[in-house]
Description:
The structure holds three protein chains of three kinds. By secondary structure, chain B is mainly alpha-helical.
Amino acid sequence: MNLTEVFEVVRSDIGSSLRAFLPELALVATILVLLLVRLFQRQGTYVSRALALIGSIVALLLALEQYGAGLHREIFGGMLAVDGYTHFFRLFLLAFAVLMVWLTMLTNMPEPEDAADFFVLLLGATLGMILMSSSIHLLMLFMAVEMASLPSYGLAGFLKESRRAGEASLKYVVFGAGASGIMLYGMSLLAGRFGTAHLPTLAERIAQSVATEHGVVIEPILVAGVLLVLVGIAFKVSAVPFHFWCPDVFHGAAAEVAGFLSVASKGAALALLSRFVLTLAYPVLQAFGFAQVSLTQALALTLAVLAAVTATYGNLAAYAQTNLKRLLAYSTIAHAGYMLMPIAAAIGSSGRPNFATAVDVVLFYLVVYLFMNLGAFAVVALIRNAIGSEDLSHYGGLIHRNPLLTVAMAVFLLSLTGIPPLAGFVAKFRIFVVLYQTGFYWLLAVGLANTVFSLFYYVKVLRVMIIDEPVPETPAWQSNALAVAFHVLLIVANFALLIPGVWNGLQDITTGAVATLLLP
Amino acid sequence: MSDSIFVQYIWLVPAVSLLAAVITAIAGNRWLKQQAWLPCMLAAAFGAVWSALALVVVAQADEPVAFVPVLEWLTVSDLRVAYELLVDPLSALMLFMVTFVGSLIVAFASWYMAHEEGYARFFSEVALFLFSMTSLVLVANLLMLYVFWELVGLCSYLLIGFYYTRPCAAAAAKKAFVVNRIGDFGFALGIFLIWVTCGTLSYRQVLAVDQGLQQLTAAGPAVLTTVCLLLFCGAVGKSAQFPLHVWLPDAMEGPTPVSALIHAATMVTAGVYMVARFTPLFAQAAGVGTVVLVIGCVTAFIAAFTALTQTDFKRILAYSTISQLGYMFMALGIGTVAGAVAAIFHVFTHAFFKALLFLGSGSVMHATGGELNVWRMGGLRKYLPVTHWTFLCAALALAGFPLLSGFWSKDAILATVWQASGAATQLAGAVGLITAALTAFYIGRAYFLVFWGEPRDRAIEEQVEHYVRDEAHGPPEPLIMKAPLIVLAVGSVLVGAVIALAFGGLVPFLAGAYGVEPLAHATAEHDAHGHAWGMMLLSAVVALAGLGLAYVFYGQPSPWPDRLAEQLAPLYRISVNKFWLDELGLILVVRPMLAIAAACRVLDNVLVDGLVHAVAAVPAWFARLALRPMHNGLVPFYALAMLLGLAVILTLVLFQIQGG
Amino acid sequence: MSEAAIPLEGVLLVSAAMFVCGTLCMATKRNAVGILMGVELVLNASNLNFVAFARYTPFGLDGQMFALFGIVMPAAEAAIALAIILAFYNTHLTVDVDRASELKL
């Protein structure tokens, strides 16, 4: 389908497309209102925050309603897909946006004069990320990535007076622009060679071109195109060696923003990666009766090596960190590595069932990851507000002054390590099970070794917070009901898989999301 | 039957207890204070009423077995873990017993525990126990059974160590915990083996003759036997059977209501319940029945013999509990439905009189200021009339005094054992009779020493007089404490006769739980009665003889006890020293374990810690060598590194594809 | 027609050369604005690809569209990048990216 046809379809289908696009439209409307507020009222955080909260909750409710309706179709003439997968990420990202706004309430993050801008950027980035998860057209995909990235650059440098924030956003924008350029180049090769940018069609044509009567033929342009696009996505996922920006940006940006990037941006990038890789690989695998061909094998091996290196590198590097944000940045990289593992296993194994469960566990992991990682960054932000430092050396004996934050941090970090019975354990365990079932034993070994490595630096933080001598004259954090509720919610979420029905419920949702992804 | 709300909402019974536990834990210390017992009391009373109604429904149903799905925890491929409840005559009867006796004990405890430190904590833990115990009885799945099996163990541990500042209480809690681990280890292995063989843990499938049972038998004769032995291993730990019974006497360090509730009436009978539940398996397993029979027999005798010479009031009762549990296992060892029914009958009656004995001892302890040595008491009947009379009822019931409840149930066990073919069972029947005589004697001894004669210790006498006169702490026997004693006493006297005479025994009722036609069993029952008359007469004579002897020895000052102790010095020493089982355990188990632990510690320090340090050193080394030069913060370097990465990946993949 | 003289491969080669120049520019320039220019080269290499494919293959109008968005979107990106570079200049008084090296291990 080329764009002229697309416009025709769009015109005939605009009404129902827009209806399916309602949650995103709600976000757009909120952004517009926030910009108007910015014009008339230059001061005050409350109005903007309330608007952002209402807007994201309305969008969340609309998304829930659509999830309930079980809509499953391509909209805007094949630019976007609204399927279970989209529903899942919409809910995931919008719920996360709500939590983010809640978090800013606790940490007083935007200065009053910048409040509207901050929330515009936050919701704008969220919108872009939702589009990343739902786009099935290369052009839309590129725009979605840009839409998510541009506000993120701004968010990273939001602390205008800070030298570090300036440096962080500079690095982010320079590398981000470069990565998107490379990705666009890859798209130009792919779309040009195969004459379409619509992902499912593209995938079918690739499958046709690979399976010729002379056997398997793989053109270098195909490999180059796919890999260049993957590099762009890998940059967003912060897979080694495209991760260099990540620690520096997280270090320089505010902890809240780092938390946002660490969860939402990674989540959206992984959503994009899974959809892109699976949509492309599925017809190829199908054409060969799910036997492995060199293309998918190479793709799987590349991803597997990337995943292994990323997880290992992230964990080893985190070990030497003293700045909490930087430590969590490396931890984020490591977790991206864990989540890449099953995607590699998905295309590397043969057979449709593995294919589905492999992505299923990634989504499962993402949900759990949201609760543990956001929690960790939130604690860092609140402690920064209390003691004015994010350095581990100032965290000594915090349990005496801030018991709630310390206990919460312990839960989040142990969950990140994957200690039973916390949710992080279940999530990681499921990934390892998939690796075992698909026969990626070496990757499984790497994953297990990494879990051991990671224990050291997470526990080191806890040791300092709990056992070490208190740093004299650290002020106590003033807790309030909202903050307590926030932490209790996140802590309960980290234990939630123990509650009967939650595990199955979550698994049903993720399985449903993946199932629709695979139907062409 | 399953459409009756009392069955459908049976989960309310555990749920309400859990709610009470949570409420008391949160609000107890701050708001409820001296009212902290109320949530627990209400939950237990609610449970008693609800389960009584459920029991009636079950008794009237044609098809008295219902599975009630409540919650699904998770489903991972074939493994389905669900909180599903099984309501059948067996579980309904146990549930009623637990909640009914539990609510009486909670009422008593509200008086007994008043002014104790940690009043709210006590009732929170008791409510948690009630939740776990009712769930244990109701669940329809071995995994869940194990979960609640451990949970009641945890509650027991917490409550034994209730006075955690006392070193001996802490040590007793630890001992109970560790000894139970040994049994539970076997129990867990048994469950694994069932899972591996049958692929399911639901009672529905495991106990079905054409499914689990068939698979277990088909897997080879040794499998079923191993499974049953391992399950029995768990029962030995939980129900304090030889040789794992050593924890129960020490567990008396806990508050007396806990001893009554957990260590006499309910939790320790969980093992009996479990074996009774799995009787269809045990019946098919070759040789296991004999093991159960022998263990039960040995336990019953050893414990009764030990109880003869103990001086600690509560320990006498504890050994008596162990001995009575031994009786129940003797019946289970027969491996027939009739045996299981007799065991459950005894569980039911035993709950009444043993709980009552403990509550009576609690009342005595309050009066004497915590004194436990029976030789320092005496003549208490005139100070504590209600305690005295109710204690007498319970003691007679335990002794098997004709027509009281213990008489019926013990007779049912002895008759079943006697009736079963085989030399071993004949021998067991004989031992059972001897033990019955011992039982009557030791409980008579305790009763006469405590309540008859004159006070033997001046200090204790003053303490009791002061206690009775002093109105500051209220009357010595207030209603809230008298009422449970009286209700339990009525139960101790009547329950056995009502069941045996009015309902013709428990067999017609409980047979429904095993899917056995009540009619088909009627003939067997008839036979049992035919034989039973002789046995009844014999055991009545034995009980009366034991009691009479106790009166002669201890009813008034007598030189006989000392003289006999001298003449039978070896036997006396065996009894006083409890067969040296504690010492034997110390030498055979504890010491070697400590030695192994010391060796492990050395190994741990050198090897494991060394390894851990090595593992920790790798990232540090990596960070110093590779990371510091790489993460130098320079934009061009980063860009170059990424580009190089891109180039390398591109080249490698292209080459790989060309090569492939 | 002149298009016969310049085959598709020729255009692709030019764009590939532009892509390489752009990436090298990104990796070697010390001036932040210079790096952005490298990015523009890469983007324009892709745009060249798009229009070339549009002209020579059935990709057609799609390629033109892509190129259009490929011009507009990076313009927005450049605007943000310049704003950030300006903010960086405010705190560091330079746009030399080598001076942005406070954030490191």
